[in-house]
Write a structure and sequence with these properties.
The complex is a heterodimer of chains A (438) and B (112).
Chain A lengths: L1 H29 L5 H28 L3 E2 L3 E2 L14 H19 L9 H23 L4 H5 L8 H19 L15 H20 L13 H34 L4 H18 L5 H18 L2 H5 L7 H19 L18 H30 L7 H6 L1 H6 L15 H11 L10
Antiparallel strand pairs in A: 1-2
Helix pairs in contact in A: 1-2, 1-3, 1-7, 2-3, 2-4, 3-6, 4-6, 4-13, 6-12, 6-13, 7-8, 7-9, 8-9, 8-10, 9-10, 9-12, 10-12, 12-13
Chain B lengths: L1 E7 L4 H11 L5 E7 L6 E5 L2 E5 L2 E10 L4 H12 L7 E7 L17
Antiparallel strand pairs in B: 1-5, 1-6, 2-5, 3-4
Classes of the chains: A mainly alpha (438), B alpha+beta (112).
GO molecular function (chain B): ATP binding; enzyme regulator activity
Subunit structure (chain B): Homotrimer.
Family (chain B): Belongs to the P(II) protein family.
Chain lengths: 438, 112
């Protein structure tokens, strides 16, 4: 089915765009101006590291042929994609982009204070211990898919609950930013955040509608079935997100008097997160309900970090964990057999069974991610350490970790003085001829 | 001579400029400034976190005028800048010893 492969190539490129640049822009705008480059680099570096790890052993651990106790597949069975052929290459690319963005999502919880080296060490360990096994359990024929009838169309458990828990755990282990709760830490550029949120929504069609590959409704499906399934998941992704944005804005209007742009951007992401697991399982009205509940609950949840004293900088817990749980659990109520990938949930006469399966899957994902992330997080803390110095953090992690500043708005005075830049460049250049052997 | 300094709401700047020009004021110095008075700034909300923004943007106008015109200029500025709501600003008058026009070297009244 040629159209299927054409769509999967487009969908894969769309999901790649969700990390770079969409998530980088979304997070970057919410950071302070002195740390926006570091924030963006965490996404770009996640792409670099996880991309390589995925083709070496990630695909093998998630979808390889040799199941190990229902938890993961043998990392060496398809090591380096040995034995992969044909249409599977597209599936590998598609799945790789999922692993990349899941890891990148975590960075929002630990913004402004983590050494690049610690992040580079964390990434391969975390995807290996937490992401690949959960991917195998849910999608690769492992424990959850074998023993629970849980539905997860595009990654509510593997992606969003997993990243949300990891973000929260790391924020606890790494600790608060210097001045958290005392100094203002306002987003420095909400236009970047708005562009990022819009691009995330655009790319999310690749994420959700492309996940027909996971639902098994792609390659082998007839054209009519393919069109129905892609159409429904596309539609549900759209309307749930509309509802979530409006719900977030409504909550803000009531609680704080104004509907904000950051609220709209956040509502969009909350809705996209919640409809991710459920986009194939619910009908039109169900999607609107899931979006509205996610938008309202996440808007309320992001305020909790101040009460709990948890510096989850950019609300990975409040948006991805809460949104992921909402989408995963509501399937148990709202799933309907009239949707292409759905079975009847509690509200459609399906009883408590489906709800129990959904809660069970969410619970396993939470526990798995929490344990793995705690082990890795503590190991890094007690070896190479996570944090830059307090001084570097206050003066700006961009300058400390990357030797760069995001914005040069100089007027020709001070650090913008042209001659100082030229001078530094001249001094930094190694002598080419002097002292060289003749 | 007097220096009349007015700190007003930005949206009233055009009204004040027109009124002063109609009165016959030839020049003025205008700057974008920020500050706060009794109303203490405003509040911004980011994902439920409220930030008190202490400083509010204002326009500062500085005009040097003859002693005889000072009261009129103050009255004109107050009338043109007034909305009756909180944050309308302040006007104050200070003495000026000497004024010199840089281009010609003219002094005091001739330099205005």
């Amino acid at each position: 089915m040629d159209g299927y492969y054409a769509w999967m190539i487009v969908a894969t490129a769309l999901v790649l765009m969700m990390t770079t640049p969409a998530l980088a822009l979304f997070y970057g705008g919410m950071s302070r101006s002195k740390s926006v480059l570091n924030m963006m680099m965490m996404s770009y570096v996640a792409l670099g590291v996880v991309g390589i790890v995925y083709v070496l052993w990630g695909w093998s651990m998630s979808f390889g042929p040799s199941d190990v106790g229902g938890v993961f597949a043998n990392p060496f069975s398809l090591f380096g994609l040995e034995g992969v052929a044909g249409g599977s290459y597209i599936a590998v690319c598609f799945q790789m982009t999922f692993a990349v963005i899941t890891a990148a999502l975590i960075s929002g919880a630990i913004a402004d204070r983590v050494k690049l080296s610690a992040w580079v060490v964390f990434l391969p360990l975390w995807v290996t211990l937490s992401y690949f096994p959960l991917g195998h359990m849910v999608w690769g024929g492992g424990f959850i898919s074998q023993h629970l009838g849980a539905q997860d169309y595009a990654g509510g458990t593997v992606v969003h609950i997993n990243a949300g828990v990891a973000g929260g755990v790391l924020a606890l282990i790494i600790g608060k930013r210097v001045g958290f709760g005392k100094e203002p830490m306002k987003p420095h550029n909400l236009t970047l955040t708005m562009v990022g949120a819009g691009l995330l929504w655009f790319g999310w069609y690749g994420f959700n509608v492309g996940s027909i590959v996971l639902a098994g409704g792609g390659e082998k499906a007839d054209t009519r079935q393919f069109m129905t399934e892609t159409g429904v998941t596309f539609l549900n992704t759209t309307i749930a997100t509309c509802a979530a944005m409006l719900a977030w804005l409504a909550v803000e209007r009531v609680l704080h008097g104004k509907a904000t742009s950051l609220g709209a951007a956040s509502g969009i992401v909350a809705g996209l997160v919640a409809i991710t697991p459920s986009c194939g399982a619910v009908d039109t009205l169900g999607a609107i309900v899931i979006g509205a509940v996610a938008g309202a609950l996440c808007a309320w949840a992001v305020g909790l970090k101040y009460k709990m004293g948890l510096d989850d900088s950019l609300d990975v817990v409040g948006v991805h964990l809460v949104g992921g749980i909402v989408g995963t659990v509501l399937i148990g109520f709202l799933s309907t057999s009239s949707a292409p990938g759905g079975i009847d949930g509690l509200f459609y006469g399906g009883g408590l069974g489906p709800l129990g399966d959904q809660v069970g899957a969410a619970g396993i994902a939470i526990a798995w991610s929490a344990v793995c992330t705690t082990v890795i997080g503590l190991a890094i803390r007690h070896t190479i350490g996570w944090r830059v110095s307090d001084e570097a953090e206050v003066e700006g992690i961009d300058s400390d970790q990357h030797g760069e500043a995001a914005y040069d708005l100089g007027t020709g005075l001070g650090r913008g003085l042209p001659s100082s830049g030229v001078l530094a460049a001249t001094q930094g250049r190694a002598p080419v001829t002097e002292g060289a052997p003749a | 001579m007097k220096l009349v300094t007015a700190v007003i709401k930005p949206h009233k700047w055009e009204d004040v400029r027109e009124a002063l020009e109609t009165f016959g004021v030839n020049g003025m110095t205008v700057s974008e400034v920020s500050g706060y008075g009794r109303q203490k700034g405003h509040t911004e909300v980011y994902r439920g976190a409220e930030y008190d923004i202490a400083l509010v943007p204002k326009i500062r106008i500085e005009v040097v005028v003859d002693d005889a015109d000072a009261d009129d200029v103050v009255g004109i500025v107050v009338k043109a800048a007034q909305t009756g709501r909180i944050g309308d600003g302040k006007v104050w008058v200070s003495p000026v010893d000497t004024v010199v026009r840089v281009r010609t070297g003219e002094v005091d009244g001739a330099a205005l």
